[in-house]
């Protein structure tokens, strides 16, 4: 009986390890979300391997344990690949940015969210699924007189970018073919330095291959932008998902590691980061934190500070 239990457990664990390991062969859209949880799943595989070895000590159980440890270790290595240099001391931040998917049905917390945005002291705020703030826009515009989005009533209020400084350039575009106007590209002058700000909201990766198209379009948009760059928003995928990794590598984007977990809310800091703030040199992240309260959203928001490196002389944004 012990032998039967051993091989049944081993078969299930083998199948699970194979599914996660498919990332090394193919970036199949249906498994992209699974890839985002590689570290969490690998930890569960390690625990499962130990249970199997407790049932019966056999070389195959040790092979499963080694495979599980490899998946966990490689996941941690991937998290560090796009970690920028520590810029936390000695330099005053150039500006402060908040990014938050407030959830499109989060009406009952809209007043508290507006209060939080106003009190944040952020120079730029990137709000996604911003429809619940429809009745608070005028109050927000008094603090943030420059905005992109929410110009034609609540039905147009999806991505809302707020700024205390005027926009040098501004553009709203679509990425992929599923949803419209979920890419905002703008630039703002901070003390003589023009910084490009891009907001993106990607589709969930298990909605067919729409996210694959969106990442391709986003890469083309970022590739046409020169100079200091911030990319923020809801990617619905971890930075270890193959498609996101390809974008970060190609566009030379960095973040601070470990990124704060933003989903699921119930998991707290043991969740995964599917909301991101990235920077491209000569701009660097000085700090990156999760907001203290999700205020009814199914995502946690992020707030970051940025500094320019020694190569920080910038010209007009393009």
TrEMBL record:
InterPro entries: Endo/exonu/phosph_ase_sf, Endo/exonuclease/phosphatase. Keywords: Endonuclease, Hydrolase, Membrane, Nuclease, Transmembrane, Transmembrane helix. SUPFAM superfamilies: DNase I-like. Residues 98-299 form the Endonuclease/exonuclease/phosphatase domain. This is Endonuclease/exonuclease/phosphatase family protein. It comes from the Bacteria. Pfam families: Exo_endo_phos. Coiled coil: none annotated. The chain crosses the membrane at residues 6-26, 33-53, 59-79. It comes from Rhizobium bangladeshense. One of its GO terms (molecular function) is endonuclease activity.
